[in-house]
Design goal:
By secondary structure, the chain is α+β, with helices and mostly antiparallel strands. It is about 30% helix and about 35% strand. The termini are far apart.
Length: about 140
Amino acid sequence: MWFTRDQFALCNELRIWGLEPRFEPGDIVARGFADLGYEEFQVLPGPALLSLTAGTVSRLPEDHQDHFFWIPSVDECVTLLESHGAVLHELQRVNGREWVVGLHHADGSEQSAHGESLHDVMLQALHELLSSEARETK
């Protein structure tokens, strides 16, 4: 498994805040199982799914797509943040233990995220941005 339970949970929440899963070849998606946790897949042409846990390939029925959430890469997180008007102004590794990212938002506010991996902080930043946008529109 490439991701932590916390990262899976964070990505699952991203869907709640409007980040729909993508099913383009190469994308990474996951789904939760109440009693087992999460399973991640790489999308293959067809569309088919390669389980990154079991190594099996299965077809993806369209009526099952609602059960999945997308795990954007670091690059995809940056693109998504920028598409929402955020500007990355700080990215650093602190004491070889923690990543810090700082963002300026279109409304003039600033945001920072701290985490153990670069992927962690980018997902956190995206989560904060999308959840705050969703709260503002309610």
